[in-house]
Structure formats: structure tokens, C-alpha cells
Design brief:
Elements (H helix, E strand, L loop, with lengths): L14 H12 L6 H17 L3 H4 L7 H9 L3 H30 L6 H14 L16 H11 L3 H14 L3 H4 L4 H20 L36 H7 L5 H6 L5
Length: 259
């Protein structure tokens, strides 16, 4: 299992730890460290420019090396669009994992197939989901949703915790900042809670858990985190109604209306 690089944290987490987490959420491939470094620079620059107080009070994080990377990145507008696309896909992966967790909590069988079914219906009806701090635009097709899950599954727990944390626990995030050490710790604690669930959740007729322990990113083993459970709201009446109509891809193929 790959370990999250949080920067120096021996005396506690720093704002730089939060920047590194965001960059990892945007690029989870182990081998793409250079791209993560570019994302770190843009995350840091954006937060500083947008008036995030915690970042502004730690302006020493903006080193000459970071400015060099910023200047080396061509077509910055296009790069921002690329980041937006990555955020969309990461949000989808987090929502799929959250839906599986909510189904399990409701004592219903949860799976990626079923979560994709819910998400496709929801995105078709609401192209910009209301229950997120991120303005998401994502093609609602199942294939697109599955591709997002496949690529961002190693950090789906971080996206699940981030979206829940932004919308329900800290709605003031956009103005007050996420990068205070206690908030970074809180996010990681919730992510660890849902990661443990995902790595131990075995969908029906599957031999592997929802999250692969060998691929999912984890914080350093010696990092002390608070005991903060992942606690999304329960399924809505809409979810329960749509669940009645769900058929697995195999059963759906055999349904008379689809012959």
C-alpha cells in the first residue's frame, strides 16, 4: 500500500500537508510524482490568491522552486481546465464509495454497479449536484462513471471524506480555509474510517473487497489521528425508491424489456 507524503510532520501536520493531500487526490498514480508536484504548486497558488488565511500566514511555503515549476507549466488556462476535469472524476469516485457505505449502513447490498446506477440517475436529473462544495459537471454515462472510479479508486476514500467534510461538517471551508493542521487531521481521520470499511467490504459474488489494500493510499503508520468516524447522512427516500427498480447488469440483460 502506498504511503501519503505529508511533508515534515514530526511536530504536527502543517498547511503543506493539506496541499500534498489535495495534489494526491488529483493524481493518485504512484509513478506520476512530477505531475503531483505541479498540482501542489497550483493548489498552493490558488489558495494563497483566494485569501486562505492559513496559507497566507505561511507564505514561506512558496519557495523559488515552486515558482520555477509554475513558470515551466505551459498553457496555464488549459492546466486549470485539466484540474477541473480531475476534480470531477475524483468526486465521482468518492460518491461511489459513499453510496456503497450508505447502502451497507441501510442493511442493503452495496456494490460499484449499484452506486453507478444511482449516480447515473442523479446526474441525469441534476447535472450539477447540489450536495457538494465542488461545482461538478460530469457526463452521466455509466462508462464514464466507471472509468472515473477505476482511475481514482486508490484515493476514493479521500474524496469521500473531502466532499462530506466540506458540505456537512465545515460548510465555511471555502472562506475560512481547510489547511489548519487540526482540519487536515480531521479529514484524514474520516478518510481512514471509510478506507477501513472499503477494504473490508466484500460485494456479493465478489472475491475482492471494494478497495484494494495494496493500491489504496494510507497515511504514515506513525501519524496519530483523532477518532473521527465517517458519518454520511442516511439514504434519502429517493434512493430507497430507486433501489426498488435496480437490477444488476446481468439480470438487467435478461429482463424481458431488454431482450
Amino acid at each position: 500500500m502506498p504511503t501519503i507524503d505529508l511533508g515534515p510532520y514530526h511536530n504536527g501536520l502543517t498547511p503543506w500537508s493539506g496541499i500534498k493531500i489535495l495534489a494526491l487526490m488529483l493524481e493518485p498514480k504512484v509513478e506520476d510524482a512530477a505531475q503531483r508536484e505541479r498540482f501542489e504548486v497550483f493548489c498552493l497558488g490558488n489558495q494563497f490568491a483566494n485569501g486562505q488565511k492559513t496559507i497566507q500566514h505561511n507564505s514561506h511555503l512558496i519557495t523559488p522552486r515552486l515558482f520555477d515549476i509554475l513558470q515551466e507549466t505551459p498553457l496555464r488556462t488549459r492546466f486549470y481546465a485539466h484540474i477541473s476535469d480531475r476534480m470531477n472524476a475524483g468526486w465521482v469516485a468518492g460518491q461511489i464509495l459513499t453510496l456503497i457505505y450508505q447502502l451497507h449502513t441501510a442493511k442493503l447490498r452495496g456494490s460499484v454497479n449499484k452506486a453507478v446506477y444511482f449516480l447515473e440517475l442523479y446526474l441525469t436529473k441534476y447535472p450539477i449536484p447540489s450536495q457538494t462544495a465542488i461545482p461538478i459537471r460530469h457526463p452521466p454515462g455509466r462508462q464514464s462513471l466507471r472509468e472515473s472510479w477505476k482511475e481514482f479508486k486508490p484515493v476514493a476514500h479521500l474524496w469521500a471524506a473531502w466532499t462530506l467534510w466540506c458540505h456537512y461538517d465545515h460548510p465555511h471551508l471555502q472562506s475560512d480555509g481547510f489547511f489548519a493542521p487540526d482540519r487536515v487531521s480531521d479529514l484524514l481521520a474520516q478518510a481512514e474510517s471509510v478506507r477501513f470499511f472499503g477494504e473490508n467490504h466484500l460485494p456479493r459474488s465478489r472475491s475482492k473487497p471494494t478497495l484494494d489494500p495494496q493500491e489504496t493510499w494510507v497515511p504514515p503508520a506513525d501519524l496519530s489521528l483523532p477518532s473521527t468516524p465517517f458519518s454520511p447522512p442516511p439514504l434519502t427516500d429517493w434512493h430507497r425508491e430507486q433501489h426498488k427498480h435496480y437490477r444488476s447488469p446481468q439480470r438487467q440483460y435478461l429482463h424481458p424489456h431488454n431482450r
